[in-house]
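Hey, quick one: can you model this chain's 3D structure?
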Amino acid sequence: MTANPFSIRRYNFDHRGERWQVLKVDIWPTWVEHIVPPAGEDHAFDFQHYKRRVEISVSPTGRSVRICVDGKEIR
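Sure thing. Here's the predicted structure for all 75 residues.
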């Protein structure tokens, strides 16, 4: 099975009474980890690891934008 070259997820979250938009992009797949939880193999799943993770958060007004690459904020 060939992994996708990237993974994109979009979600919203409320902060101080406002709804922020968040976009997470994972780029360059590296390896797949097979995870078996305590419930057993019937509930196991594969998790794709990626080399780079980019997260973009935008405030409801669009005046505040935060960008993080591999967990470090870019200013």
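One thing worth noting: The CA atoms of residues 57 and 63 lie 11 Å apart.
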